[in-house]
Amino acid sequence: xxxxxxxxxxxxxxxxxxxxxxxxxxxxxxxxxxxxxxxxxxxxxxxxxxxxxxxxxxxxxxxxxxxxxxxxxxxxxxxxxxxxxxxxxxxxxxxxxxxxxxxxxxxxxxxxxxxxxxxxxxxxxxxxxxxxxxxxxxxxxxxxxxxxxxxxxxxxxxxxxxxxxxxxxxxxxxxxxxxxxxxxxxxxxxxxxxxxxxxxxxxxxxxxxx
Length: 210
Fold this sequence. Notes:
Layout lengths: L13 H7 L7 E5 L3 E7 L4 H11 L10 E4 L2 E7 L2 E6 L4 H11 L5 E5 L4 E7 L3 H8 L14 E6 L2 E9 L3 E7 H21 L4 H8 L1
Antiparallel strand pairs: 1-7, 2-5, 2-6, 3-4, 4-5, 7-10, 8-9, 9-10
């Protein structure tokens, strides 16, 4: 029987993403293939639910809107008052889902492994905020969007979840698989435009976002 090879929507993009990352201090982009992603829904106001989820995940779920909780490689992104996206390195989705279902047994909840639904793109560098500001309605100023914040929004008209990882700045973009190549192309073009116009006053705009 022939083996089935797992592929990512951006498998063929390595060379182009590498070229776009030639000056990583200014802009770097990479695809994080096969990241584990589990959608969790439940009543965080229920102390039993919150405690059980903490036991399964190793940290408290974020309760403040548009924030994240993290521990080691794992993160929980707030998507709504009763909804979170649990993210980890590849091949842990099933284990995370099973752990949550076991810990939350008997409680009202929904646990769904959605690892195959979205591609994760990571960008960083001095131009990263400016690149995002070109196509995102959110205020990308560091004072308005900083770690541990996240948000569901549009980027170049594509539905995304943006997670601010650190002050580098570094961001993770969770995008539906069907839009991954489109968004990668848009991001590399926007970064190239930033690079081409550097020295024409764009540094001042970028500095005001930092």
